[in-house]
Amino acid sequence: MNTGQPAADEESVLADISGMLAKLLDEYGLDDIEIGMRTTFNRDLELESIDLVTLAGLLEERYGGRVNFAEFLADMEFDEIIELTVGRLVEHVVQSLKAAEAS
Amino acid sequence: MAMLDTGDIRLHVQRLTPRDGRPATATAVLIHGLLTDSLASYYFTVAPAFAASGIDVIMYDLRGHGRSGRPDSGYTVDRQVDDLDALLDRLAVTGPVHLVGNSFGGTVAFGYAARRPERVASISVIESEPATQAWAAKLGGILGRVVSQLAHNEADALAWITANRSQNTARLAKGAARLARTTTIARDIPASTVLTDDQIRSVSCPVLAVYGGDSDLAEQAQWLESLLPDCRTVVVPGHEHSVLVEASGVVGGHILDLIHGRQAVLG
């Protein structure tokens, strides 16, 4: 995982988030799952909702108050959360970081 | 991840506070339901809006659930009330708190208010009821069936859930199965101390009780209103037991009205 200042581009954010997910999956002994933009949290990674709470904490550690994962998910319908892809989260993080830079 | 050791159990706690360092106007503690539930049911639904409205929001995983410790035994309502009391002590929360409880979490909230009335400003329960003889008998039946089905054929039960429900449900069911199989939870909960009608009547703080219109529990509404001195019930049509997650905007709005209204009175 990149430990420097977070960059607001898709590639860096995907690398960051893949690192966080690898950390989460490692707890389940799943350390060889390939993660890309189309990977779904639920079907592909089989993450439970409580895992997403842990991910929210990792996102906050990395991006501080600029990204609010809880609010992002709270605005979604239940079905949308089930279908959520890594790519959609990456886009949200990139947008949030750009918005923070601009303000 | 914030782990808090009460001395008896390690509890996973999450806290959302108002943005920009604004001081909170109230503290709410959100308690989730049994077996397949965790604090995530609040974290990704009503909690962000509660914090945005100026509330210090405390969520925790009940023992055995989510990321909290899973001891072999000690799952009665009384023990859950002990955990909540210890949690508030450890977090140094001094003023009265607004309790929110979903399903079994509401039963814990009623138990807490009966034991520590001075620490409770209001109670909002969703699809819930206080611990009574009838409640204990019903939970005993439900938990007994869960355990016996799992004992007979866990693999088949889980395969059926995966095929007929979502993958998410199957994953959660696996966790619930482990809890039911490896601990005394199914025996402990029906053995909880129940409240008498007088003890329930003694809960004098404002109570909001929300039910799904299509849920069996909706018939509790009238009984609770008749028993509690200050109780309002809301039935949300078209929903069953998962009304908190499925209609979180509506449910959260009612809870916020109660908390902010009560806080205006308390000052």
Could you say what the CATH topology of chain A is called?
Answer: Non-ribosomal Peptide Synthetase Peptidyl Carrier Protein, Chain A
Evaluate the radius of gyration of chain B. 18 Å
Classify the beta-strand content of chain A into a percent band: under 5%
Helix content of chain A: 55-70%
- Multimeric organization: heterodimer
| CATH superfamily membership of chain B | Alpha/Beta hydrolase fold, catalytic domain
Structural class of chain B: alpha/beta
**Helix content bin of chain B:** 40-55%
Distance between the termini of chain A: 27 Å
By CATH, the topology of chain B is Rossmann fold
Main pleated-sheet profile of chain A? none
Count of DSSP H/I helices of chain A? 5
The largest pleated sheet of chain B is described as: 8 strands, mixed
* Principal-axes shape call of chain A: globular
Amino-to-carboxy terminus distance of chain B: 33 Å
Helix and strand string of chain B, N-terminal first? EEEHHEHEHEHHHHEHEHH
Mean pLDDT of chain B: 91
Mean pLDDT over the full residue set of chain A: 87
> What is the CATH architecture descriptor of chain A?
Orthogonal Bundle
| Largest interface, Cβ cutoff 8 Å | A-B, 20 and 27 residues
